Amino acid sequence: MTPRRLLPDAAELPQILSLIHRSFAAMEGRINPPSSVHQLTAATLAEQCQQGEVWCLGDPPQACVFLTPHSDCLYLGKLATETRCRGQGLARRLIDLACLRARDLGYNALELQVRIELIENQQIFSRLGFAKTAETAHAGFDHPTSVTMRRSL
Q1: Which of 10, 11, 66, 95 has the smallest CB count inside 10 Å?
Q2: Ordered DSSP codes for 36-61
Q3: What digits encode the pLDDT tens for the residues 43-91?
Q4: How would you class 106 by CB atoms within 10 Å of its CB: exposed for 0-12, middle for 13-18, buried for 19 or more?
């Protein structure tokens, strides 16, 4: 499976949207506030393709990731893998790709955020070379709701 960068008019964008919704569905009722995946639309995916990058593996897409340039790192978001495809190294391949893209863009780090309640995701990202650097709170919350994790390249 070769990673593909999607363009704003990619026919796969509705499939990517469905993949993300299915992949993030297990968070329902576990995280507060609710996930921002509920705000994603085909139009916001097309915008992500323009302002950042959207990559996928498989046809139809079995895994995807958003990459967004920040001032001092490449931000990795919406990493999603089809449930039936988990454990096959697809997420690792997309993170390896993100490392290459970060270097190509002149960055020396990747960064991501994981919800505080999703300890298992934090552990997975730790095994993939990310370290916790901060805890943050969504607007209106007086306690941490997310963990920021960073991987140096």
Answers
A1: 11
A2: GGGG--HHHHHHHHHHSEEEEETTTT
A3: 999 999 999 999 999 999 999 999 999 999 999 999 999 989 988 999 9
A4: exposed
